[in-house]
C-alpha cells in the first residue's frame, strides 16, 4: 500500500515536471528565463530580525516568498542551492526615503506675460498631485548601485521643489516585473523654492503651505456639500493640487517633510502644529537636540545616510595659531556630533529608519560603520534598515524581517554588519537572486592612495628633455589622473586625461592620447613605483620608446 | 466620545504649552548703582531688586533675599535694556521680493536663534529688537519682536509673546526699483506705491465682506452659500484695518510720509510708525498728530537719491515737536552701540540725557506697543537691564553686564571668547566678519535689481 502510494506520487511528480518542461521550454527560446524560482540557502547564520539569530539555518525561497526557515528545512528538488557556510543572512534593507531610478519631470513652461507674484502652481514647484511611479525606472543604475548595498525596498520620492508629488513604495526586483508595492504612500515636501517667483524663499513657502492647506480643506468641504446637497450650490472647480491634499487632511497619508537641520525641523513642526497633519521628518542630518519636540509631535523619524566631509575636522593645524587650534576643536566636536546623531536618537528612545537621499551609494557601508563606531548599536542600525522602516511604512506584515510568508528580500554578507571587511555577496529582492563577486580587476584603493598627488617627470626624447607633471586623485572611488605634456603642435603644454590606469602597488601603467597632425597617438606608459620615485618609459606604436623618471612632490600641509 | 477626546487634547495642549512657553526668568539684586530710570529721573546709589524676571523694588539699602545673587554696581550706571525698533538680525531670510504685497509672510518663520550677532548685540546693551521684513515690497511681511535670550535653540524662545503684531511697509525707491524697474510691474513710481497700498486695503475690505456674508448665511436652513477662497495676504491686510497690527513703514521723503498718513486716515488706520524718516523734520507736526512716531538714523544719508535732503538734527527736531522718536540700527554692527547713536543727538540738537536715552529705550518700546512691559526701570516692569562702567552717553562707556528677564546674558569679565552656539562640521575656519554687513533691508533682491550691485547702501 505504502509502496503504491509512493509510486503514484513519483509518477505524478514526473508528469508534472514533464508538463512544466514542455510548457516553459517551448516558450523560452531566449534562454533568459531563470531555471528556477526556488532557492535554498543552507547552513548560514540567519538574523531573522534584530537580535534574533538562527545558527546553521536554512532558508527556502519559493516564488518570491520565504517558504521555510529553520535548522532542518527540507530542500525541494527544484531548488538552486546556495551554500551559506560562514555567511550571514540579514533581512533585505529598506530605504525609508530614496530616489533611486526617479527622473525629474520636465520643467513646466512659463505662460507668456506671467505675473511672477502669482505663477501657476506647476511653475512654482507645487505639484502635489504628481505620482512618482510615473517617473520611475527599475533599470536605472542607481537602483542597481543601492541593491548592491543590500537595499531591496525603497519609498521613492519625486523630484522637484516645495511640493514635488506623492511618494510610492517599490521593490528592487527583476527588470521585467512591475515592482510596485504601494502608490501614494505620502505627500513629499521640502524647503526648496523657485528663483524669482512666489514663493521664492522660506518666508513665502511657509505662507503658501498654510494657504494651500486651508484652501484644500475648504474645497473638500465644498465638494462634500455639492455631492450630498447639490441643488442650488455652485459647482466646485477642479484643482488637482488642492485635491492632492485630501488624503493628508483625512489622515490617510502623512506629509514626508525633508528636514535636514534643526531649523527646518522646527519649521516643519510649526506647520504641523498649526495644521494638524501626520508628519514624517526625513533626511535628518542634524536633529538629535530635538528629540523631546519630535516625541511631543509624534513625528516619525528618517535619518540621512549622508555624513559630512571629514576634511575640515581632520585638517592639519600643527603650525597654526593657538586660537585657530581652539576653534578647530569645535569643528571636530561638531563633526563627531553628526556621527553620533543616530546613537543619540537611539539613546533618546526614538525609533528611526534611514534615507538614502543625498547619500552616495559608495559610502553606504563606510557611513553605517562610522555610526556604529560612534555609539549606534548594531541592533538599532539593523532595525533602522529593516523592521523600523517596515513599520514606519506600514508593511511589517510582509517585509522587514525573515519570516515564513514574507517577501523574499535578503542580504547575504561575508561577515557581521559593522565590520570594515564585511562584503555583500548576494542580495535577494522580490525572490530574485543578485550575485556580487568581488571585482579583482579593480585597483586596490588602499595601495592607489600612495599615488595621489602631483608627480614631476622628465623624459628624454630625440628632440631634447621634456618636462611636465602627472596628477593622480581618487574621485568617485576611482583612481583618476591627468598628465601635462608639451604640445606637439605648438608652444606650451596641454593636459591629457589618463586612461586604463593599472597599479598593483609596484607596477604602474596607463595610457593617454595626443594629437599630432590630426592623428591620434596613444602613448603607453609603464614602469615601477618605489616610494616617491617612478622609473619607466613612454612608448608609441611604431614610433619608439623614451625613458621617463618622475618623483612625487611632497604634500604641503597647512 | 469625540467631545471627550477634544477636551483631552485641549488639556494636553495646555500642558505642552505650559512646558514650552516658559522662557527662563531670573532674580538678582543690583546694588549702589546710578540708576537711569529714563521715565522717573536718575537715582544715585540705588538698589534694584529683580525677582522672577520682574523689577520688584527700587530703593536704597534693600536686603538680599535668600538665594538671590547680589551685584555691587558702585560707581556704575544701570539703564534699561536698549530696544532697537528696526533690525534684520537673526533672520534667515529678509525679503520675499517676489510680489509688491507679501503681507502673508511672517518673519517669525525664519528666526535663527544661532546667530552669534545676538550675543554681540547683547554685548552692546541691546535686549530687544524688532526683526523686520526688508523694504523690497510696498507691503512686506509681518515682523517679530524678539527678546535676545541668547542660548536657546528654539526660535520661539526669542519671541516676545506680549508684543502686538507688526508689519513692514516700504515707500519710494526700493519697491519701485524692485518691482517697477526690475520686473515692469506696479509700482513703478511713488504714485504706484500709493495705488498698490490703497488697492490692497480695498481688496481686503471686499474679502472680509465675502467671509462675513458666508459666515452669516452658512448655518441658515437651505443655505446655498459655499466657502470663499482663503487668502492669507488679505486676512492680514484686513487685520491691519481692524487695528490689530502696527505698521512700521520704511520712508524717506516728506511727501511720501504725508501720503501714507493720508492713506491710513482714509482707511481709519492709526497704528502707524515711520522708520528711517530722513525728511521727517519737514512734517514733524503731522507725525506728532497722526502717528505712533518716527524711528530714525542718527546721521546716515546720501547713499541714494531720495536720502540727500537729510540732517543729523532730525531726531532732535522731531523730539522737540513731540513726535515719539527712536533711533534704530538697521544694521548688525550699529546694533552693538546704539548708545553712541543716541549720544549724537546731544551734539546735534542738544537733547538732555533723559531725552537722548529715551530714543533707545521707552520710545521704541512705545512704537512696538510694549512700553507697559519694558523700556524703563520701574517697579513691575520686566527686568531687561544693562550695567555700564560710565554714563552710557559718554564715548568711553562700555556695557559690563546685560540682563533679560533678570537673567544675565552678557558679562564682559566672565564670558568666554567663543560664544557661537553652532559650528559647522565642514568649515575649516568660520568666516569672522570684523566689519559686520552694513544693512540687510534689501537683502535677497539682487535678482530683481540690475543696479543693486552698484549700491552698497540701500536702506
Question: How would the blueprint of this fold be written?
Answer:
The complex is a heterodimer of chains A (558) and B (459).
Chain A lengths: L1 H26 L10 E12 L2 E11 L2 E6 L9 E4 L4 E4 L1 E6 L42 H8 L2 E6 L8 E7 L8 E11 L11 H27 L11 H4 L2 H4 L5 E4 L3 H14 L3 E6 L6 H7 L2 E5 L17 H18 L1 H7 L4 E4 L8 H10 L4 H8 L1 H6 L17 E4 L10 E6 L2 E4 L9 H4 L4 E9 L2 E12 L2 E9 L6 E5 L1 E5 L3 E10 L2 E12 L2 E8 L3 E9 L6
Helix pairs in contact in A: 3-6
Chain B lengths: L1 H20 L6 E9 L5 E10 L2 E6 L9 E4 L4 E4 L1 E6 L29 H7 L2 E6 L7 E4 L1 E4 L17 E6 L2 H11 L6 H28 L14 H10 L3 E7 L2 H13 L5 E5 L7 H7 L3 E3 L17 H7 L4 E3 L10 H10 L5 H6 L3 H6 L17 E4 L10 E6 L2 E5 L48
Parallel strand pairs in B: 1-4, 1-5, 6-7, 10-11, 11-12, 12-13, 13-14
Antiparallel strand pairs in B: 1-2, 2-3, 5-15, 7-9, 8-10, 15-16, 16-17
Q: Helix tally of chain A? A: 13
The low-pLDDT segments of chain B are 1-20, 451-457
Task: Strand order, main sheet of chain A: write it out.
Answer: 20-19-18-17-25-24-23-22-21
Give Rg of chain A in angstroms.
29 Å
Calculate the terminal CA-CA distance of chain B, rounded to whole Å. Answer: 57 Å
Give the key terms.
heterodimer, A: 558 residues, 9-stranded antiparallel sheet, B: 459 residues, alpha/beta, 8-stranded mixed sheet, 6-stranded mixed sheet, globular, disordered N terminus
Amino acid at each position: 500500500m505504502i509502496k503504491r502510494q509512493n509510486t503514484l506520487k513519483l509518477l505524478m511528480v514526473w508528469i508534472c515536471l514533464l508538463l512544466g518542461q514542455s510548457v516553459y521550454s517551448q516558450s523560452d527560446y531566449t534562454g533568459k528565463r531563470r531555471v528556477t524560482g526556488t532557492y535554498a540557502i543552507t547552513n548560514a547564520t540567519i538574523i531573522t530580525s534584530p537580535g534574533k539569530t538562527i545558527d546553521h539555518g536554512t532558508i527556502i525561497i519559493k516564488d518570491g516568498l520565504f517558504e521555510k526557515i529553520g535548522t532542518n528545512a527540507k530542500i525541494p528538488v527544484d531548488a538552486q542551492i546556495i551554500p551559506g557556510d560562514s555567511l550571514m543572512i540579514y533581512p533585505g534593507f529598506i530605504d525609508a526615503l530614496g530616489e533611486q531610478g526617479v527622473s525629474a519631470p520636465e520643467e513646466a513652461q512659463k505662460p507668456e506675460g506671467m505675473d511672477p507674484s502669482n505663477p501657476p502652481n506647476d511653475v512654482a514647484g507645487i505639484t502635489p498631485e504628481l505620482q512618482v511611479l510615473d517617473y520611475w525606472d527599475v533599470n536605472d543604475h542607481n537602483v542597481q548601485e543601492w541593491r548592491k548595498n543590500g537595499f531591496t525596498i525603497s519609498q521613492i520620492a519625486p523630484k522637484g521643489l516645495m511640493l514635488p508629488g506623492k511618494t510610492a513604495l517599490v521593490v528592487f526586483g527583476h527588470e521585467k516585473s512591475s515592482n510596485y508595492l504601494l502608490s501614494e504612500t505620502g505627500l513629499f515636501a521640502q524647503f526648496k523654492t523657485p528663483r524669482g517667483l512666489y514663493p521664492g524663499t522660506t518666508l513665502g513657502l511657509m505662507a503658501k503651505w498654510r494657504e494651500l492647506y486651508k484652501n484644500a480643506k475648504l474645497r473638500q468641504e465644498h465638494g462634500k456639500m455639492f455631492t450630498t446637497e447639490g441643488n442650488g450650490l455652485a459647482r466646485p472647480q477642479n484643482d488637482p493640487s488642492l485635491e492632492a491634499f485630501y488624503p493628508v487632511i483625512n489622515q490617510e497619508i502623512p506629509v514626508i517633510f525633508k528636514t535636514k537641520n534643526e531649523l527646518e525641523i522646527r519649521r516643519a513642526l510649526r506647520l504641523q502644529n498649526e495644521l494638524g497633519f501626520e508628519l514624517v521628518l526625513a533626511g535628518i542630518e542634524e536633529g538629535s537636540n530635538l528629540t523631546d519636540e519630535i516625541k511631543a509631535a509624534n513625528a516619525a523619524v528618517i535619518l540621512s545616510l549622508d555624513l559630512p566631509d571629514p576634511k575640515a575636522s581632520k585638517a592639519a593645524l600643527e603650525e597654526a595659531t593657538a586660537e585657530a587650534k581652539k576653534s578647530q576643536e569645535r569643528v571636530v566636536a561638531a563633526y563627531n556630533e553628526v556621527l553620533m546623531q543616530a546613537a543619540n536618537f537611539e539613546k533618546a528612545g526614538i525609533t528611526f529608519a534611514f534615507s538614502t537621499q543625498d547619500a552616495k551609494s559608495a559610502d553606504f557601508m563606510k557611513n553605517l560603520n562610522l555610526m556604529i563606531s560612534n555609539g549606534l548599536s548594531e541592533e538599532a542600525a539593523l532595525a533602522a534598515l529593516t523592521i523600523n522602516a517596515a513599520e514606519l511604512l506600514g508593511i511589517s506584515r510582509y517585509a522587514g524581517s525573515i519570516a515564513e510568508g514574507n517577501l523574499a528580500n535578503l542580504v547575504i554578507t561575508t561577515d557581521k554588519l559593522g565590520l570594515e571587511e564585511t562584503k555583500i555577496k548576494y542580495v535577494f529582492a522580490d525572490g530574485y537572486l543578485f550575485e556580487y563577486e568581488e571585482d579583482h580587476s579593480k585597483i586596490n584603493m588602499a595601495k592607489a592612495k600612495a599615488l595621489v598627488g602631483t608627480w614631476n617627470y622628465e623624459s628624454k626624447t630625440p628632440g631634447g628633455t621634456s618636462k611636465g607633471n602627472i596628477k593622480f586623485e581618487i574621485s568617485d572611488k576611482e583612481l583618476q589622473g591627468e598628465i601635462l605634456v608639451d604640445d606637439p603642435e605648438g608652444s606650451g603644454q596641454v593636459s591629457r586625461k589618463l586612461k586604463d590606469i593599472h597599479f598593483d602597488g609596484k607596477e604602474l601603467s596607463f595610457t593617454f592620447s595626443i594629437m599630432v597632425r590630426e592623428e591620434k597617438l596613444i602613448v603607453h606608459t609603464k614602469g615601477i613605483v618605489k616610494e616617491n620615485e617612478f622609473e619607466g618609459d613612454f612608448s608609441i606604436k611604431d614610433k619608439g620608446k623614451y625613458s621617463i623618471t618622475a618623483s612625487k612632490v611632497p604634500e604641503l600641509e597647512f | 466620545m469625540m467631545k471627550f477626546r477634544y477636551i483631552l487634547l485641549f488639556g494636553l495642549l495646555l500642558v505642552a504649552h505650559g512646558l514650552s512657553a516658559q522662557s527662563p526668568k531670573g532674580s538678582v539684586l543690583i546694588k549702589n548703582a546710578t540708576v537711569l530710570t529714563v521715565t522717573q529721573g536718575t537715582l544715585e546709589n540705588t538698589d534694584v531688586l529683580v525677582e522672577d524676571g520682574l523689577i520688584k523694588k527700587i530703593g536704597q539699602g534693600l536686603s538680599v533675599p535668600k538665594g538671590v545673587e547680589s551685584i555691587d554696581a558702585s560707581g556704575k550706571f544701570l539703564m534699561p535694556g536698549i530696544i532697537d525698533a528696526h533690525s534684520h538680525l537673526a533672520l534667515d531670510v529678509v525679503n520675499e521680493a517676489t510680489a509688491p504685497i507679501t503681507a502673508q509672510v511672517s518673519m517669525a518663520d525664519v528666526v535663527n536663534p544661532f546667530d552669534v550677532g545676538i550675543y554681540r548685540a547683547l554685548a552692546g546693551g541691546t535686549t530687544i529688537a524688532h526683526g523686520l521684513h526688508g523694504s523690497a515690497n510696498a507691503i512686506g511681511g509681518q515682523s517679530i519682536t524678539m527678546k535676545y535670550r541668547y542660548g536657546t535653540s528654539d526660535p520661539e524662545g526669542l519671541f516676545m509673546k506680549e508684543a502686538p503684531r507688526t508689519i513692514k511697509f516700504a515707500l519710494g525707491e526700493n519697491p519701485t526699483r524692485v518691482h517697477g524697474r526690475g520686473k515692469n510691474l506696479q509700482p513703478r513710481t511713488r504714485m504706484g506705491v500709493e495705488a498698490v497700498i490703497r488697492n490692497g486695503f480695498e481688496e481686503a475690505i471686499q474679502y472680509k465682506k465675502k467671509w462675513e456674508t458666508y459666515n452669516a448665511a452658512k448655518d441658515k436652513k437651505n443655505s446655498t452659500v459655499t466657502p470663499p477662497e482663503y487668502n492669507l495676504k488679505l486676512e492680514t491686510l484686513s487685520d491691519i484695518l481692524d487695528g490689530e497690527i502696527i505698521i512700521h513703514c520704511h520712508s524717506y521723503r516728506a511727501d511720501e510720509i504725508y501720503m501714507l498718513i493720508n492713506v491710513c486716515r482714509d482707511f481709519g488706520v492709526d497704528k502707524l510708525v515711520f522708520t528711517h524718516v530722513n525728511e521727517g523734520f519737514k512734517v514733524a507736526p503731522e507725525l506728532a498728530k497722526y502717528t505712533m512716531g518716527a524711528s530714525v538714523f542718527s546721521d546716515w544719508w546720501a547713499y541714494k537719491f531720495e536720502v540727500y535732503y537729510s540732517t543729523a538734527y532730525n531726531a532732535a527736531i522731531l523730539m522737540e515737536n513731540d513726535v515719539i522718536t527712536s533711533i534704530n540700527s538697521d544694521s548688525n554692527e550699529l546694533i552693538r552701540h546704539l548708545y553712541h547713536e543716541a549720544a549724537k543727538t546731544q551734539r546735534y540738537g542738544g537733547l538732555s540725557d533723559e531725552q537722548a536715552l529715551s530714543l533707545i529705550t521707552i520710545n521704541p518700546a512705545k512704537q512696538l506697543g510694549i512700553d507697559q512691559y519694558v523700556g524703563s526701570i520701574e517697579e513691575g516692569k520686566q527686568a531687561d537691564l544693562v550695567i555700564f562702567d560710565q554714563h552710557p552717553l559718554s564715548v568711553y562707556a562700555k556695557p559690563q553686564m546685560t540682563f533679560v528677564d533678570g537673567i544675565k546674558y552678557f558679562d564682559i569679565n566672565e564670558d568666554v571668547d567663543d560664544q557661537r552656539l553652532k559650528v559647522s562640521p565642514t568649515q575649516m575656519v568660520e568666516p569672522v566678519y570684523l566689519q559686520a554687513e552694513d544693512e540687510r533691508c534689501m537683502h535677497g533682491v539682487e535678482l530683481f535689481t540690475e543696479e543693486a550691485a552698484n549700491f552698497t547702501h540701500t536702506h
